[in-house]
Write a structure and sequence with these properties.
Layout lengths: L1 E3 L4 H11 L4 E10 L8 E10 L8 H19 L6
Length: about 80
Amino acid sequence: MLIDKAVSFQEIEQLVGRANPKLIREVALHDVYMGKGIDPSKKSYLISIELRDDNKTLADKSVDKIIGRVFQLLTKDLGAEIRK
């Protein structure tokens, strides 16, 4: 995702966790890129989100809903966008 340079990973991690605190177990940062092809005021973050329910297997529909909520929060609160 593309995000403003001023946004920290900790802000992203906390916001993602709010999407579903019960099922979102971990948010991990895999890569940060700033440079060619990226607006100088932005950076590109590659994150992963671990979802787990200890009582049942998560259905695709449930996961899609949670990821949709994550994306909604990131775009609304932090101005994130998908990098193309």
